[in-house]
UniProtKB/TrEMBL annotation:
One of its GO terms (cellular component) is cytoplasm. Residues 12-79 form the Translation initiation factor 3 N-terminal domain. Residues 82-166 form the Translation initiation factor 3 C-terminal domain. GO terms for biological process: ribosome disassembly. The gene is infC. Belongs to the IF-3 family. The keyword Protein biosynthesis applies. It comes from Candidatus Nesciobacter abundans. The keyword Magnesium does not apply. GO terms for molecular function: ribosome binding; translation initiation factor activity. Keywords: Initiation factor, Protein biosynthesis. This is Translation initiation factor IF-3.
Length: 167
């Protein structure tokens, strides 16, 4: 059975259950006041009363709730991962390689960096230099119009990597 995280729902306006609240508006602490006075103050300003913390006397902030939720959503979208990784093998088929190249092209057009990882197994390591030149150079040449190979990451045990930045 999967457990679902319970999302904390912000309490706004009449959803707040308290007799007295501490009110903050625009960084100024307006002090402790009866709940209905605080709600009336928020309505007079054309804003919402939002419960920020739960304590004996809840702390509430006077703000435009919809605008705040919009800003939070926008910030979440901006945190999208900027580095995409594509893994290939040295003896990859021609059509499979073109599929990976097209995938990398889409990422670069969306302004993401692409890390190409060439993975080796067993005896493939013997022909390391030939494989790197053939496969990685072909990959990089096909993406020259949308990206530029920035740097080769130092060879790890059985992996060679290249990072391609969008133009």
């Amino acid at each position: 059975m999967k457990s679902k995280k319970k999302q904390k729902k912000d309490l706004i306006n009449k959803e707040i259950r308290a007799e007295r609240v501490v009110v903050i508006h625009g960084g100024d602490n307006l002090g402790e006041m009866p709940f209905f006075s605080a709600l009336q103050y928020a309505k007079d300003k054309g804003l919402d009363l939002v419960k920020m913390s739960d304590s004996d006397v809840p702390i509430c902030k006077v703000m435009d709730y919809n605008q705040e939720k919009y800003k939070q959503k926008k910030q979440k979208k901006e945190k999208v991962q900027a580095l995409k990784e594509i893994q290939i093998r040295p003896n990859i088929g021609e059509n499979d390689l073109m599929t990976k190249i097209n995938r990398a092209r889409k990422f670069l057009e969306q302004r993401h960096k692409v890390k190409i990882v060439l993975k080796f197994r067993g005896r493939e390591l013997i022909h390391l230099d030939d494989n790197v030149k053939n496969v990685l150079n072909k990959f990089i040449e096909n993406l020259n119009d949308v990206g530029k190979a920035d740097s080769r990451v130092p060879k790890e045990r059985a992996r060679v990597s290249v990072i391609i930045n969008p133009i």
